[in-house]
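Problem 12. The chain below contains 350 residues. Write out its predicted structure in token notation.
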Amino acid sequence: MLAQAGRPLDIALRFLDPATQPPGAAVGELHVGRYEDAAALDRFVAGLSHVTFEFENVPVPALERVGRSASVFPPARALAEGSDRLREKAHFQRLGIPVAAHAAVDDPASLAAALATVGLPAVLKTRRSGYDGKGQAVVRTEEEARRALATLGTGLVMERLVPFTRELSALAVRTPQGEVRMWPLVENVHREGILHVSRAPATGLAPGLEEAARGHVTRLVEDLGFVGVMALEMFEEGGRLLANEMAPRVHNSGHWTIEGAETSQFENHLRAGLGLPLGSTAARGHAGMVNLVGTVPPLEALLALEGAHVHLYGKEPRARRKLGHVTVVAATAAERDRRLAAVERLVAGR
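Solution.
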């Protein structure tokens, strides 16, 4: 999607991926190689002016190496902060961004201390890696916590299980000169830890809530000297926002911007990184997105739905794998939700 956004601007993208047939191979030059392979990194970066990344499993040393030859955005520091959940929460707290109660867990003794300070129910998560619900377990008893520790291993964080009203994400883009723009706040629904539906703009927000979200993500990108798009995922609890995680990259909850905003997150990410003027982040009415996970309904059926915009990624079907998404845009929130419901029924096989 980054390559598709760059093409109209005559921005060509090259991909480094350990897989031999990743989705990017269909839209750009592919270099197959491991992120830890210095020779592969050097071949990949030769002739490039800029390098970016689109998920957090890229090792920071790989970015530092290619950064000797090309401009890297977002900065490697942002990836380092965002790829360790404990370090990330400490960063939030330093900036005055509220988070849920949490504690580090590495062994039975630290688990006992975490249970005493965080309480139950809670979520035990790996500090590194793990996404879409992987590498974590909800624990409601001390016995469940002990079993989760045995399964997940060391290097964990325990977080209070937040009884949130809803999940929200704030998407911001920042230029090297410090200009920050935000898309409307997004409401998200997850299933089994995987994003299922996004709606934007989020409706029914309490007074001051969107302003608070904008303040949180703005402080974050400014403190990191961030360049490009960042998503800050938050819980709404009792009329306030608690930061959950940051994604220092274009994000699944921003895929709706391709059709639903004046400028997509992908285009503005490239504009920011290359020092080009940013485009408007205003919404085009009310947008929604449904992820296609594990399987994809017949294309003909998806395209027959009113207002459906289908994006397929060219991935082999696999359980819990994001294979594409469908976006709808409408003049009203009610019409948007009606169209989303039609997509959901089809995805559910009804």
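Discussion. The chain is about 30% helix and 25% strand. Students who got a different answer should revisit the alignment rule from Section 12.3.
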